[in-house]
Design brief:
The complex is a heterodimer.
Chain A: H1 7-15, E1 33-39, H2 43-56, E2 61-64, E3 80-81, H3 88-102, H4 104-108, E4 119-123, H5 126-141, E5 147-150, H6 151-157, E6 173-177, E7 181-182, H7 185-198, E8 202-204, E9 209-215, E10 218-224, E11 227-236, H8 242-248, E12 256-267, E13 275-278, E14 283-287, E15 292-303, H9 311-324, E16 333-343, E17 350-353, E18 359-363, H10 373-386, H11 400-403, H12 409-413
Helix pairs in contact in A: 2-7, 2-10, 3-10
Chain B: E1 3-6, E2 10-13, E3 17-22, H1 36-44, E4 52-59, E5 64-71, E6 77-82
Antiparallel strand pairs in B: 1-2, 3-4, 4-5, 5-6
The complex binds flavin-adenine dinucleotide (FAD) and zinc ion (ZN).
The site of flavin-adenine dinucleotide has 39 residues of chain A, from α2, β12 and β16.
Chain lengths: 417, 88
C-alpha cells in the first residue's frame, strides 16, 4: 500500500493503475469514550485534532461531524489567506496562521496549494489613502508585510481594474500584502484529516451531536445520532452552529449567525493573478487555477441559518464586481452558494471556555476563518491539552466582553466580517 | 426579493428593513449596582436560535420599530406586531 504522496509514488502508482493507494482516512465506529471530542470536522476541528496528536501526544481523540468532513464553511469559502489586520493581537494570530500555511503542504504531506499571489485592498479617495497609510504602518509595526501602492502600482498588478476617473469609486491606490494569497480549501480539510487519522484520531462523519451530557455542572460527553460518547473534554468548532451547541449546555455566546454568499464564474483565460478587494464596492475576487473567477462580498442583511443566499446581496456584490472590472460584465456565473457564518460584535474570534466546565469553543471566525485554520487549530489544541491559553489566544477569550477589552477589527478595517 | 410585513405599511421590499435586536432583553436596572458580567450579558449574549425567533425590526422608510416573528432557517414570516401601544 502506498501512503506517502511524492513525485515517485505518483509515478509508481500511475504505472500500476493507481491500485496501491491507501485510503486517505478510516471510517471507524465511535468508541464509548475519548479524552477529547471535537464537534465539527471543518478545518478548525480537524487542525485541532492534528495538533493535539502531533504536538501534545493526545491521540485518543474524535472529531464528529453531522455531515461529511469539510462540508461546512471550510468547503464553501473563497480561500483568501492574509494577515492584513490592524491590532497587534490580531496580527499575531493571523500571521502565525500565514506562517503555518507557508509550511503546511510539507508538514501534512498534502498539497494545500497555498499560492502567495498577494492581495490588494483598494483605496478610493484621498481620505481612504490616509487610512491605507495608517493600516500599512500598523501592519509593519506588528511585523507583517505591507506596502502602500499608488494607482500606478495597482495598475501594474491588476490592469483589468477600472482606473477611470469617472468610476463610481476611482482607484487612488491600495494596501498590498505580498505574502497573502489563496489556498485549496478542500485540501486543507483533507490534508489535516489524513494527517490526524494517521496519528490515531477517529473522524466520525454523519455523526450529529444532538445534545451535551451535563453532570454535576460539567460537560462529560455528547449524545449523537450514532449513540452516546463520553469525553474528558469537549471542544466545539461548529462555526455558524456554535450557538446551537453552546445552547445545549445552557450557554449563550456573543454571536449572530448570518448567511455569507460566494460565486464562481465559468473558466476564463487568466485575467488576474492576485486577490483584489474593494471595501467601497463591497466585492473581492481572484481567479482559480481552473480559470473560474472566485467572487465574494459581505454578509447577507439579516441573521439566518438558511444555507442559501438572498438576492439583494447578490446584486450588490456582482454590480460591485462589474464596476471594479467592467470587462467582466459578460462573464457568466457557474455556481453560487452560501455558508452560515458566526459573527461576533468585534469581528474577532472566540477561543476559550464556553462558560461551563468541560466545554471549550473555537468559533466567531465569521467571514474570515479559513485563513486562520492552522493557527486556530494550533492554539485550540494548546488550550484543550494544557487547560490554559497560549499567549496568542489569550486576548480572544470570551471574557474580553465583560472586561470591555474588545478587539474591534470591524471598526479598524471597515470590513464586514 | 422577499417581502416583509410592516404592521403600518404592509408588505414591503426586504431592503427597506433592518434587523435591530433580539426581542425580550431588558436593560439592567441601573438604580442598583450592575456587575460587569450582567452588562456584558445584556449587551452581547445572544440566543441566536435556529428555527422560530422573535426579533425587533425597524422599517426604515417609516421608522417604526416592531416585533417580527419568523423562522431563521426557512425565512418564513410568522407574525409582525407593533411595539407602539395606543394610549388608553
Ligand atoms: C462564502 C464564504 C466565503 C468565505 N471566504 C473566506 C475567505 O476568503 N477567507 C477566509 O479566511 N475565510 C473565509 N470564509 C470563512 C471561513 O470559511 C470560515 O471561517 C471557516 O471555514 C470556519 O471553519 P470551521 O472549521 O470553524 O467551520 P466549518 O468548516 O463550517 O465546520 C463546522 C462543522 O461543524 C459541523 N457541525 C455543526 N453542527 C454540528 C453538530 N450538531 N454535530 C456535529 N457537527 C456539527 C458542520 O457540519 C461543519 O462541518 C468564508 C465563508 C463563506 C461562507
Ligand atoms: Zn412601515
Amino acid at each position: 500500500m502506498t501512503s506517502t504522496y511524492s513525485a515517485f509514488s505518483i509515478l509508481r502508482e500511475g504505472l500500476r493503475g493507481g491500485r496501491g493507494w491507501r485510503q486517505a482516512w478510516r471510517s471507524p465506529d465511535p468508541k464509548p469514550a475519548y479524552d477529547v471530542i471535537l464537534i465539527g470536522a471543518g478545518g478548525h476541528g480537524l487542525a485541532t485534532a492534528y495538533y493535539l496528536a502531533k504536538r501534545h501526544g493526545l491521540r485518543n481523540v474524535a472529531v464528529l461531524d453531522k455531515g461529511w468532513l469539510g462540508g461546512g464553511n471550510t468547503g464553501r469559502n473563497t480561500t483568501v489567506i492574509r494577515s492584513n489586520y490592524f491590532y497587534p493581537e490580531s496580527v499575531a494570530l493571523y500571521d502565525l496562521s500565514v506562517r503555518l500555511y507557508e509550511g503546511l503542504s510539507k508538514e501534512l504531506n498534502y498539497n494545500v496549494m497555498f499560492s502567495q499571489r498577494g492581495m490588494l485592498v483598494m483605496a478610493h479617495s484621498e481620505h481612504e489613502m490616509e487610512m491605507a497609510a495608517r493600516h500599512t504602518n500598523a501592519m509593519r509595526l506588528n511585523g507583517a508585510d505591507a506596502e502602500l501602492l499608488e494607482a500606478d502600482g495597482v495598475r501594474k498588478r491588476a490592469p483589468l481594474l477600472n482606473f477611470s476617473p469617472q468610476a463610481r469609486y476611482p482607484i487612488h491606490g491600495a494596501v498590498w500584502q505580498g505574502r497573502a494569497g489563496t489556498g485549496r480549501h478542500d485540501a486543507v480539510a483533507w490534508g489535516y484529516a489524513r494527517a490526524a487519522d494517521r496519528l490515531g484520531v477517529d473522524i466520525l462523519q454523519n455523526c450529529e451531536v444532538t445534545d451535551l451530557i451535563v453532570e454535576a455542572g460539567r460537560v462529560t460527553g455528547v449524545e449523537t445520532t450514532r449513540g452516546r460518547i463520553r469525553a474528558g473534554v469537549v471542544g466545539a468548532a461548529a462555526a455558524g452552529h456554535s450557538s446551537v451547541i453552546a445552547g445545549m449546555a445552557g450557554q449563550r455566546l456573543p454571536l449572530h449567525s448570518y448567511a455569507l454568499q460566494a460565486f464562481v464564474s465559468e473558466p476564463l483565460k487568466p485575467v488576474i493573478d492576485t486577490v483584489a478587494f474593494s471595501p467601497a464596492y463591497g466585492t473581492y475576487f481572484s481567479q482559480s487555477d481552473k480559470g473560474g473567477l472566485v467572487i465574494g462580498g459581505g454578509l447577507d442583511r439579516v441573521p439566518s441559518y438558511g444555507q442559501r443566499g438572498n438576492l439583494p446581496m447578490q446584486e450588490a456584490v456582482l454590480s460591485g464586481l462589474i464596476e471594479m472590472a467592467p470587462m467582466l460584465g459578460k462573464v457568466k456565473l457557474l455556481r453560487h452558494w452560501a455558508g452560515i457564518v458566526d459573527v461576533t460584535p468585534d469581528s474577532s474570534p472566540l477561543i476559550g471556555p464556553a462558560g461551563i466546565e468541560g466545554l471549550y469553543i473555537n468559533c466567531g471566525w465569521g467571514t474570515g476563518g479559513f485563513k486562520a485554520i492552522p493557527a486556530g487549530g494550533y492554539l485550540f489544541a494548546h488550550l484543550l491539552a494544557e487547560g490554559r491559553h497560549h499567549e496568542i489566544s489569550r486576548p480572544f477569550d470570551p471574557d474580553r466582553f465583560a472586561a470591555g477589552r474588545l478587539i474591534d477589527e470591524g471598526a479598524a478595517w471597515g470590513i464586514a466580517h | 426579493m422577499q417581502l416583509f410585513p410592516c404592521p403600518f405599511c404592509g408588505d414591503r421590499d426586504e431592503r427597506e428593513f433592518h434587523f435591530a435586536a433580539e426581542a425580550g432583553k431588558s436593560r439592567p436596572d441601573t438604580t442598583g449596582a450592575v456587575s460587569d458580567a450582567e452588562w456584558a450579558t445584556y449587551l452581547y449574549a445572544q440566543r441566536n436560535d435556529k428555527g422560530p425567533v422573535r426579533e425587533v425590526w425597524v422599517h426604515l422608510t417609516c421608522a417604526e420599530l416592531f416585533v417580527l416573528e419568523r423562522d431563521s432557517v426557512t425565512m418564513a414570516v410568522l407574525r409582525a406586531t407593533p411595539l407602539r401601544q395606543d394610549p388608553a
